[in-house]
Amino acid sequence: MSARRPSGKQQDRRRKITELVMAEGTMRIDDLVETVGASAMTVYRDLADLESQGLVHRNRGYVSAASSLLYEAASEYRLQQNTSEKEEIAQAAAELIEPGQALVLDDSTTGVYLARLLPERAPLTVVTNHRGVFGELAGASGISLICVGGDYLPWADAFVGGMALDALRNLRVDLAIMSVSAVTDGICCYPQQEMVQIKKAMLASARRRVLYVDHTKFRRRALHAVAPVEDFDVVIVDSRTTSADIEVLRDRGARVEQAGNARSAVPSTKGAGRA
């Protein structure tokens, strides 16, 4: 039997707990109980759920944020973070899509925001391994929808594994649009190898490649490399991304488009990553 979905109040409380722990790094659970204002039993239940999602670790009365090198936050949590930035870069990505194209979207929660804009670009064929994207587009007029199945990862709300890889390797699309957990020295990275394989297969299936990342990705680190930024035809960043971070991308040869200032974006003099 599937677990019951947490109520809105539970989700808000767990989101607050996660934000507090991530801000502090490590906290005494007793202090967390006092700050949240819920019973100790309730907070311990919340922490058990957050730990199962790979967001926190508990040890001898303390709770710590999970290492971003090894874990990606649960999809449900990520969906509520940096929403204005996600909307901004999703809108910029939507402007690159033409009616009649086939595109593949990965497990990134920004894809959910992009999916909400796609009916305006119909007709389209959309391939995805993310249930959130699928849910947004199921039944949408003018959208031919292909869900890549396989082994289901609850924390990602997405499918991975051999079946998913085989399906992607047999597809050819016009456009792959994706995000990553971190961009370090111009290298796109992600914590889990199984999702890295999916992202690489998506890139290999596409004629053109688009990366969209908000400014927080440049302050994070993750374990596995997906691709260098110059392998993408366009890199979309949000309006809060610093000029220094943009310059690193351009120095590697990436064509960078800053959302909110898209038309003034200047490609690197070294050229775009792919023809």
TrEMBL record:
PROSITE patterns: HTH_DEOR_2. It comes from the Bacteria. Keywords: Repressor, Transcription, Transcription regulation. Residues 10-65 form the HTH deoR-type domain. GO terms for molecular function: DNA-binding transcription factor activity. Transmembrane segments: none annotated. Signal peptide: none annotated. SMART domains: DeoRC, HTH_DEOR. It holds the Pfam family HTH_DeoR. Repressor of the lactose catabolism operon. Galactose-6-phosphate is the inducer. This is Lactose phosphotransferase system repressor. It comes from Saccharopolyspora elongata. The lineage of its organism: Bacteria, Bacillati, Actinomycetota, Actinomycetes, Pseudonocardiales.
